[in-house]
Amino acid sequence: MGPDPVLIAAAIAAFIAVGGVGWVATGAMGDSQNAKQRKAVALGGAASRGPRRSAAVDPTQQRRKQVQESLKELEKRQKDQRKKSLSLKARIEQAGMSFSPTAFWIASGVLGVIAFSVSLYTGQAIWVAAASAVGTGLGLPRWFLGMRCKGRQKKFTNEFANSLDIIVRGVKSGLPLNECLKIIARESPDPVGPEFAKLVEAQSMGVSLEDGVKKMVQRMPLPELNFFATVLTIQARSGGNLAEALSNLSAVLRARKMMREKIGALSSEAKASSMIIGSLPPGVLGIVYFTTPSYMNAMFTEPKGQLMLLGGLIWMSFGILMMRGMINFKH
User: Fold this and answer.
1) Which residue pairs from 234-238 have beta carbons closer than 8 angstroms and sit at least 24 positions apart in sequence?
2) Which of 46, 72, 188, 288 could covalently link to 193 via disulfide, CB atoms 3.0 to 4.6 Å apart?
């Protein structure tokens, strides 16, 4: 009796089924191992590329961090400096004058005594003479210092961009920064030249450039000079192209100057109108007093007239201050 064909077919089918299951399992394990290998290779490549990328990014991030820290420190220092009230000696230095605070107070007292004597000589009341003495002795010298400071700062701003151009050309040609500062101290007009001369003198005595520029900003508190100090401080701490930074700063300062002049031209009509309106009442008073003195004598000799003059002066002061605030554009 021969082999049963049904058993042979069943055995072949079972063999094929077992082989297929084994092949599928082996292939799945192989694919899983290949996937793991590819993942490991990918992770290894990323890990190997990571340090190189971080090494390439680190200097930029480090410099950016240094710049941010320098800016924060400078901003904090400027806020602390703005909170401090300026002394009389600092105001005199900002005005570019060399007399002492004692001489300033002596001059203020002399002006007050002169104003008091003139008021009494013209027949004014004692309280009018005292008010005139206080206003003249305390107000006039401080007003003179303020006007002197503003005029000096305006001259410095107009010439400062040219000084930056001197530094840019000198650095590009290979000169050190100290030599460029000496050229500015010799060649630039007042007040830029004397201020840079003080900076060069301080450096020759061992003061660092950062501290010297800080003192310079205290003598000349301008945003333009503050920008210059910030650029020098950041360049000294974190490095960089000084010529390019100062060239950009010079362009910004010239644009600010053009904008300031444009604003001044657009607001000149309003300023002229306010000056005319503010000068009309005292002008009319002076004309009437000199043409017909008897008509105005009662205003100066009678108590009611003096009170009326005082009230008019107060109201005129309020009006002038209000008009000044309306036309005084910050730029």
Assistant:
1) 234/66, 234/67, 234/70, 234/71, 236/209, 236/210, 237/66, 237/70, 238/63, 238/66, 238/67, 238/70
2) 188
Q: What span, in angstroms and rounded, lies between the C-alpha atoms of 270 and 322? A: 13
Both tokens assigned to 23: 């092949």
Say how many CA atoms lie within 13 Å of 316 toward its Cβ: 16
Q: Which residue has the tokens 């009678």?
A: 302
Integer Cα distance of 279 and 287 in angstroms = 12
233 contact partners, CB below 8 Å, separation of at least 6: 70, 74, 210, 213
For 156-265, CATH gives: 1.20.81.30
Residue written as tokens 């570019």? 96
Structural tokens at position 120? 């009494």
Cα separation, 317 vs 285, whole angstroms: 15
- DSSP-H helix ranges across the chain: 5-83, 88-94, 101-121, 126-134, 140-172, 177-187, 192-204, 209-219, 223-238, 242-266, 268-291, 293-301, 303-327
Is the Cβ–Cβ distance between 209 and 180 less than 8 Å?
no
- Can you tell me the distance from the alpha carbon of 99 to that of 84, in angstroms, rounded to the nearest whole number? 23
Does residue 64 have a pLDDT over 50?
yes
CA–CA distance, 23 with 21 (Å, rounded to integer): 5
Least confident of 55-64, 174-183, 186-195, 317-326: 55-64
Parse the chain into domains and list their residue ranges.
Answer: 156-265, 268-331
Residue holding tokens 């060649």? 187
Residue 34 dihedral angles phi and psi, to the nearest 5°: -65, -40
Closest CA to 256 of 292, 301, 211, 226: 226
Name the residue with tokens 């000349």: 220
Regarding pTM above 0.90, the answer is no
In the chain, the N- to C-terminal Cα span, in Å, equals: 118
Residues 118-154 pLDDT 10s? 988 887 778 888 888 998 998 899 999 999 999 999 9
